[in-house]
Amino acid sequence: PLLPLQILFLNLVTYVFPALALGMGEGDATYIKRSPRQKEDSVISARKWKIIFFYGGLITVSVLSAFFITLDGDNANAKLAVTVSFLTLGLAQVFHVFNMRLTNTHFLKNDITKNPHVWAAIILCVFLLLISTQLDFSRKLLGLEILNTDQWIIIWLFSLLPLIIGNIVNLFGFGIKK
Question: What is the pTM of this model?
Answer without folding.
Answer: 0.86
